Amino acid sequence: MKAPIAKRIPFKHTIHNDVREDDYYWMKERTDPEVVSYLEEENKYTNEIMRPLEQKTNEIFESMVARVPEAEEKVPVQNGPYFYYSRQQKDKQYAIYARKKAAGREQLTEAEEEVLLDLNVLAGSDDYLSVTQQRLNEKQTKLAYLENRDGSDRYTLYIKDLTTGDLLNDKIENVYIYGSIEWSRCGRYMFYVTVDDMQRPYRLWRHEIGGAESDELLFEEKEVTFALFISKTQSGNYITVQSSSTMTEEVRLINADEPLAPVELVDERRRGIKYEVEHWGDHLLILTNEDALNFKLLRCSVSDFSEREEVIPYDENRYLQAIYPTKDKLFLFGRENGLTQIWMLENEELQQLDWPEPLYTLSIVGGQSYEAEELLIEYESLLTQDTTYSLELTTGDKQVIHTATVNGEYNPESYNQHQLWATARDGVKVPLMVTYKKGALDNGPAPLILTGYGSYGADSNPYFNAYRLPLLDKGIVFVTAQVRGGGEMGRHWYENGKMRHKLNTFTDFIDAAKFLIEEGYTSSEKIAARGGSAGGLLVGAVSNMASDLFKVIVPEVPFVDVLTTMLDDTIPLTTLEWDEWGNPQNEGDYTYMKSYSPYDNVEEKDYPHMYITTGLNDPRVAYWEPAKWAARLCTMKTDDNTLVLKTNMGAGHFGASGRFDHLKEASEVYAFILDKLGVE
């Protein structure tokens, strides 16, 4: 079977006296039967290409499934008289959320389980289900949650009565996927955020549970470059209302005890100033980047926001990202030396918590009570599975209370993990996280998969993945390049990989690959590049800039038609992202963005083997971006290498929702990579 050749309909974009030819612009018409037909033909071709690899795909899938624990339970988190947790059952796609009533952890084994939500039952026969933002009322008698069945960012709010097990009649549509629902303390009102036609969260509403009156609009974010989010402070006393853009923040407060009171502004927005607000005792805590690139901590009285004093001064080597107060202790979360860190405030100084490995990732377990006497911290590394520590707040002692199960034999001593530093072309040192099985490099360059992201200031952290073990056992080396545009090395790392510094993201990745080849880890015949979403842009741009450097490239849901998307303010998220990529209505931004946009830089030359994915319902990166790019590549490339486009016709940006369906997708990708790298 030959690769499908998409029809070409001449179309020209003209702006700033520049003309862009776009013969595949017709693919934007999702309702056009020819568009769906083309995507289906590409899927048939992908299936045909993958048919000889069916055994390899199944072997990888089975080896991954063999690592899935028959039953896995998350650490229960105490909230008043209950402990809340999620668990997975053998052969089930989705999680089960439950609670037990117990005086302490020691009594949990004997306590009776109450299932709150079984997503397997909720999913029914539907192919896709996403449930987010489970929120309990203060009395813990009602559970609000968001549900979606098509992969978009438009969710439906449901409220379940935990006493009767019934759903209330309070059903609300068009609620945003995250940061969008909170209860008043009395439990009589629900605050929620809805999206506009472009799926931008922008309106805050107050809903009376069971009320006959129309919901009241409390605030509308009218600036199209801003999104609106809400969250409850750790104390539960306030609900923060955050108007947020890439560069600027504005926060308002709702008193959770006075749900009918007006929303109160903390600080007016000023371009370039980011801040977040928490509550602790008689003070508001304000984490801000004003005159402090990597943020500092201030505080003010809850009754007077204007008078502020410094709590934690600015330190250019310490990137403060979040505040976490408990009743008696204050913690800060951030990064130092490229790694996540947690600090405890003691005697007006930050004390860093110590950890057993040189590479690791930390997170504070969600849902913990402000009144708790312990702080639960999750720890993992490339070689250490998810491990939960309990930090006693009175003594400062910490101990492991749970370690995730890894099915099958696993000895971390059989593998290596370490950090390397590649020198970018401008002299900047780029951190690389490396893991492989001992002996993998004994016979010279090894097959290697290099991943990266490098956008939005997002962090690529060293995390454990049991599904990676079968591939490590085959001799694959895994490397993550923490390229500029991410936040791994601080706010400056992000600033130097966005807007008109975006090329640094791509050249960092290229220079990292060259470094790995020069150091003998791999060769251009044995290296694959993989990235999703903005990481798909990364590997897509690299495919044009250094096509001879990689054997295989896997762009997943890639953002590749940068100009067409960013010039169309009717597309979801476009306006929110002008401060990330630039606004191409500005000629300087347009020219710079065009210089790297993968779709606009396809050339008549050889390209690596490519496995491209997309989702028909993806609201974040429209299906037509990868589809158009694949069509243009297929027409222009001069090699005989394989190029496939796989479209998930029933999912969105995050692919399949069930854990086994997700593994099937991953297995096919890995089978493709391993085949092209010559790995049995």
From TrEMBL:
Belongs to the peptidase S9A family. Residues 12-402 form the Peptidase S9A N-terminal domain. PROSITE patterns: PRO_ENDOPEP_SER. This is Oligopeptidase B. GO terms for biological process: proteolysis. It holds the Pfam family Peptidase_S9_N. SUPFAM superfamilies: alpha/beta-Hydrolases (SSF53474), Peptidase/esterase 'gauge' domain (SSF50993). Residues 464-678 form the Peptidase S9 prolyl oligopeptidase catalytic domain. It comes from Jeotgalibacillus proteolyticus. Keywords: Hydrolase, Protease, Serine protease. Its EC number is 3.4.21.83. GO terms for molecular function: serine-type endopeptidase activity. The keyword Hydrolase applies.
